[in-house]
Design a protein that fits this description.
This protein is of the alpha/beta class and about 400 residues long. About 35% of the residues lie in helices and about 25% in strands. The protein folds into 2 domains: about 260 residues, Zn peptidases (Aminopeptidase); about 110 residues, Alpha-Beta Plaits. It starts with 17 loop residues before the first helix and ends with a helix. Bound molecules: zinc ion.
Length: about 400
């Protein structure tokens, strides 16, 4: 393993410490660590609280000031920090039987970047605050749904002292690895539309009713389900669609279903794509239920708008990533992050490193050490560039 990211034109003080970062990742993974290599560190669990206490000690050990706010967010900054701060971080809670990198990388890379700035006497050190947000995942049955710490920060007075937000994260999907890429500057986070479709037919005897005399709600719903992929890909090759819920009633092997309920979800990087998908889904449902002698209702039950990160900060992130590795791309995130909350309040940027096999929220979650260190270096380079762009 190569421990150093080579930066031929920069002094050693501008290079993050690979072994220190990787050692911290190993230590953090031991809180809630599982024999299979995964991590159980759901927000509020004993392991989560112990990990946060360890993080605060680790911040103090670097000669920095650590503090925890009312909700449970852990922060670190130099003692001289006058604010406003560029906030850099992620979360240290996990899903049950989760992986060792989701969130953890972003927090510990932020610590490593700030430590390196502080040690080399870089003036940006006093303008950086690092954070581990409380309960990003929303994985506990008691959780109000995740993104709790970042939402609380944005509702607090402290947000007035924050000038921007940066987050390094694993991609949690296969796109970077499949394209042989090493870093991504994230443009934003896809919007999500969900539709509930009720198909109504006529319940009847499954044996005595001739095939050409049926109003089969299951068949109508199944044809809609099968058509959803073409609706998405026909509009936008980057759109994804899912039918994760399907219920047939009355639900008996010898009764033709009289009713079917399904939920269709679309995720896309553009509002036009989402709106187009809604219109085409409506047309698809109308055509199919007509052919199947059924009726249907369709209702949009939720709309999460597309998040667009600050374009200037995105450009800066992309330039810093490209300098760190030529294998850099811009892409949208298909998963939600604390960055989506922050982006509603301050200029926000995000960086991705590849996820091996595209696996996340599972014990097998991994990224080669070299790419973890390189991601941290790209985060450091982004912070340094951001400072020089302002001064
Ligand atoms: Zn995460």
């Amino acid at each position: 393993m190569s421990n150093q990211v080579r930066t031929t034109t920069r002094p050693a003080g501008d290079t993050v410490h690979a072994e220190r970062l990787l050692g911290d990742l190993d230590t953090l993974a031991s809180f809630g660590g599982r024999p299979d290599g995964g991590v159980d560190r759901v927000a509020g669990s004993a392991a989560d609280r112990e990990a946060r206490a360890w993080l605060a000690r680790r911040i103090e050990h670097a000669g920095l000031h650590a503090y925890t706010d009312k909700i449970g967010n852990v922060f670190g900054r130099t003692h001289a920090g006058p604010g406003p701060w560029l906030l850099v971080g992620s979360h240290t809670d996990t899903v049950p039987a989760g992986g060792r990198l989701d969130g953890a990388l972003g927090v510990l890379a932020a610590l490593e970047a700030l430590r390196t700035l502080h040690e080399s006497g870089h003036p940006a050190a006093d303008l950086i605050e690092i954070v581990s947000f409380w309960d990003e995942e929303g994985a506990s049955p008691d959780s109000p749904g995740g993104l709790i710490g970042s939402t609380a920060l944005c509702a607090s007075e402290h947000i007035r002292q924050i000038s921007g937000y940066l987050e390094l994260h694993i991609e949690q999907g296969p796109r970077l690895e499949n394209s042989g890429l090493e870093l991504a500057a994230v443009d934003g986070i896809v919007g999500i539309d969900r539709y509930r479709i009720e198909v109504c037919g006529a319940a009847n005897h499954a044996g005595t009713t001739p095939m050409d005399a049926r109003s089969d709600a299951a068949r109508g719903a199944a044809r809609v389900l099968a058509g959803v992929r073409a609706v998405a890909l026909g509009l936008d090759p980057g759109m994804v669609a899912n039918v994760g819920c399907l219920e047939l009633r009355p639900g008996s092997p010898n009764v033709i279903p009289g009713a079917a309920t399904m939920v269709v979800e679309f995720r896309a990087g553009g509002e036009e794509s989402l709106a187009g998908a809604g219109a085409e889904l409506g047309a698809l449902v109308t055509r199919i239920v007509g052919e199947e002698r059924c009726t249907a209702t369709i209702e949009r039950i939720s709309h999460k708008p597309v998040t667009r990160f600050d374009p200037h900060l995105c450009d800066l992130v992309e330039a810093a990533c490209s300098r760190t590795s030529p294998l850099t791309v811009r892409l949208m995130s298909y998963a939600g992050h604390d960055a989506s909350v922050l982006s509603g309040h301050v200029p926000t940027g995000m960086l991705f490193v590849p996820s091996t096999g595209g696996i996340s929220h599972a014990p097998q979650e991994s990224t080669p050490d070299r790419l973890l260190v390189q991601g941290c270096q790209a985060l450091y380079n982004t912070i340094a560039d951001h400072y020089h762009a302002l001064s």
